[in-house]
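Lecture 7 notes: from sequence to structure.
We start with the chain below.
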Amino acid sequence: MRFFGGRRGASSVHMWPSLPDVDLGEVGSSIEALSERWKAYRSRQISRWISDHDDMWLGDFESYISDGETGVRAISEAMVLSGRTKFQKILDLPCGGGRVTRLLKNFFPESQLWIGEIVDPLREDVSREFAARELIFNPDFSNVPTEKFDLVFSGSLLTHFDKDMYSNAINFYIEILNKGGIAVLSTHGRSDATRIFNSQEFPTVVSNYKKHRKFAKNIPDIIEHSLDPQRAKDDFSTGRFGYFASPHFSDIYKQSYGGSFVAPSWVMAIIQARSDCLILGYKERSYGKSQDIITLLKL
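Predicted structure tokens for the same chain:
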């Protein structure tokens, strides 16, 4: 089943001919197994290695790891919701400089760890340091790799995409799951919208963006309104998809790249149109204590 190319069918709601057969396990057993996993995780030393190419490294290791551990917590919550206590193949996409990757390696030492990242030096560094296998994919998510996974974690990637790329990425993550697999995906929702749009600096952001419209002619994927943060705020406030491009990063990646702000109802419309996944949860202010987490199970 292919859904690439935007919100195709997202206005519809799929109803199964009969209820899907789903075994979500026994909560007590899941919590006990998860408790033992956390005890073992706490006993292991976390790697303090930092890639020379890691732009998320700001010099404070405790804060760096603390933010990463909110991803492990989100995965733990997904494990309780799904009844899953272990995973054979795990994918961290994007891996960045391995902030979460190193924690997944400690939390699931028995699992086969994979990473995905469009910045080659980062992907190569993280693969080498943590013995992770590399997943190569199209940056626009227009292909489905043959590899399938039991757990997919995506921290702060959907947060940077325009509407079409966001939809493509959501569907991509669902496609690469094995049956019974879980996707844990972060997104900008009400909390990040409040933090950014209501900040004292936001009027300055709007003013500065008016100076960068020249970038639009150099990057075909950027259309005029994508350089309008005020429109992004207005779109989000009315329950639509809010987005504004970053001229700097769009120029680096040669595609529209910036900040997206998505109402829960908007992203649920994409998912509820599919027949092959179950919505396990949507939690606000989870990853990084700011981003929302979407939890999905592949049928």
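Points to note: Confidence is low (pLDDT under 50) at residues 1-10. The chain is about 35% helix and 20% strand.
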